[in-house]
Amino acid sequence: MAVLVVGSVALDSVRTPFGERREVLGGSATYFSVAASFFTPVKLVAVVGEDFADEHRRLLTERGIDLSGLQAAPGRTFRWKGEYGYDLNVARTLRTELNVFAGFRPSLPEHYRDCEYVFLANIDPDLQREVLEQVRSPRLVACDTMDFWIAGKRESLLRTIRRVDILLINDAEARQLSGESSLVRAAQTIRALGPKALVVKRGEYGAMLFSESSVFAAPAYPLEAPVDPTGAGDSFAGGFIGHLASARDLSEKAMRRAIIFGSVMASFDVEDFSLGRLVRLSREEIHERYRAFSNLTQFEAIPEDAS
Ligand code: AMP
After folding, report:
1. Which residue range(s) make up the domain with 220?
2. I want to staple 81 with a disulfide (CB 3.0 to 4.6 A). Which of 95, 108, 165, 213 is the partner?
3. Is ligand 1 within 6 A of the CB of residue 123?
4. Beta carbon of 143 within 6 Å of any ligand 1 atom
């Protein structure tokens, strides 16, 4: 089952304690699309400027990503500049330039409108809704956002969230959105806003799934040499939604597997700058790391004779 994604396609300038890159390919929809493309066909909706290089376009088409919903507009591509300290969990945004996104009016190609799986990647919540309204009968709508929109466009974001089945955000965003410090309480508050399930991404501490009936927690893969966490959240979402769409299964079991596939894709993303690691990835490596997650978290029941 194909997944439709709307979000940013960006040129990122990033500094981490392990190096620096200027104007490299990034964006929430880009990371999502590449990660999800290992699981299922992807149709991308976004806008880029005249400065967007053909090599970036090629990288996406080589992964089989449908770019007929990627508009080219006069002006500059979206740019984000950020940095991380030794605590790679915290991104510091230095500059956000919406550029061509400021005047973007998405119009979905006809063959996009029947997509059953929709991911509203991090972008202006008005745009997220505008895209969602053009999809005929989505089976699963998932959504991401960030502090920039929670603080800057809260009312619009709440209107979007009302129509979402699964919200995927990080722990700081869950606290900011709900006004609760406890993630358990934050999940209750956020689920009352519309989503049936909440996925909280916790960087190197893993991810949690709060659904109607249960809570599931997964660790992050213990990486020896993380390099750049940019896009980890979007890569997580790509593995998560990609698995649900390819399995055509929205059961609790499938959601738990999807959390692990999400964690797998995020862990690979962090191993290099930009899309460097994701584009070199094979399905075998994904499955091998999935098994490593299983070993990482497997433990025995308490033996009968233990007190
Ligand atoms: P992540 O690290 O997964 O949270 O996402 C990083 C990506 O989000 C970067 O590649 C940025 O280009 C993109 N990004 C940063 N700020 C925004 C924003 N306000 N709206 C949309 N995308 C953004």
Report:
1. 3-296
2. 95
3. yes
4. no
- What is the CATH number for 30? 3.40.1190.20
How far, in Å, CA of 117 to CA of 137, rounded? 9
Probe ligand 1: pick from 28, 156, 169, max atoms within 8 Å of CB?
28
Instruction: Name the residue at shortest CA distance from atom 5 of ligand 1.
Output: 231
Q: How confident is the model at residue 55 (pLDDT cuts 50, 70, 90)?
A: very high
CB 12 within 8 A of CB 223: no
Residue 58 CA to residue 250 CA, distance in Å, equals 32
> Could you tell me if the CB of 234 is within 6 A of ligand 1?
yes
Which atom of ligand 1 is found nearest the CA of 170?
4
- In 10 A of CB 269, how many CB atoms? 31
Q: Answer whether residue 273 is part of any domain.
A: yes
Q: Compute the Cα dihedral for 166, 116, 9, 40 and give only its sign.
A: positive
- Domain tally for the chain? 1
Q: Compute the distance from residue 188 Cα to the ligand 1 centre, in Å.
A: 26
pLDDT digits (tens, 9 = 90+) for 134-164: 999 999 999 999 999 999 999 999 999 999 9
Entry pTM:
0.97
163 burial level (CB within 10 Å; 0-12, 13-18, 19+): middle
Q: Looking at the domain assignment, is residue 236 inside a domain?
A: yes
